[in-house]
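Reference record
================
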Amino acid sequence: MPRKVNRNPGITKRGDKWQARAFHDGKEFSRTFATQDEAVRWKREQERAMERGEWIDPNLSSITFAEWSKHWLAAKTDISASTKRGYVTRLNTHLIPAFGKSKLTAITNNQIGQWVAKAIENGSGAVVVKRSHSVLRQILNAAVLDGRLNRNPAIGVPLPRTKSKEKKALSFEQLRALAAQVTDYELLILFAGTTGIRWGEISALQCRDVSILNRSVNVEKAISTGARGEKIVSPTKTHQVRTVPFPKDLIPGISLLIESKPAESPLFQMQGGGVLDYNNFMNRIFRPAVERSGLKDVGFHTLRHTTASLLISNGTPITAVAGILGHASTQMTLDVYGHWYEEDINKYVDRLGDSLFSTGTDKERTNIFPVTLKESVS
């Protein structure tokens, strides 16, 4: 009797189930199915993926989004406590309800697009959706790097447009007026408004970080507040140490601050001593001072924008502005503050003209190109 030829090698019947086996780099991977057709289909899918170089170990890709997001979050040891809290909020509020039970390989570009559309339809703001999508993209990208996905389905998903809110900044006069409203913290306001150092970084500054000789401070750390109100010291946002100069007019005040203090003492403290407390400072000191000054929509971060605005209006090169603000690149500075450079473009060109055509006073300007007015022809 002729021997039966197995038309589907790698497919075996086991009781009332069918087992499919695939091999990759000499290692066997198997899956059991209710029907032979399902087993054959799975095996062919594995083989086609191997041929395209897109094969993913089924044991790795079977993890759910909820499980993988826990691994991803646990590995994020280089972020501040407040950033981590933001990730947790977006996961629990938006991402886990939508994708938590799905296997990583089951999440598709179309599914993510439908989630975006539904979130907007249900009243979520464009900014909230974009930030949640950003976290989703990071989590899935980590899965790609870990060999659990061959591509990131979050890439290329259409996102809602957001109106870029113009950064508010104070003028010299407004900055001085605001500082004058808080006698005990006048130096802190002027320091923040002329150095652009973030609140968390200012809170972490110690007397040892100050160089009166160089008129600068070394910004190495930042302090954030944990979920239970504890103070957490971590590296700066960019994980880089930077040296930030301060105006010479602040030397007397800063010299007085560090006088007779231990090197590890906070440079700026609350009135009763101790590390600066954001909520306490904003509620008791800053917001009332803003109101008394007649200003609107001014937060502490406005002082950082003020530094950028004042530097740009004084013709400071973009490279210097980026270095002072601690931006990772000049492109980041242009993305945030580029419109201010555009607003001042005529002023810069006039300065060029002054240097090229002036010999002294305005009366002595060299008239190289006499202007002849012609009648316009209609």
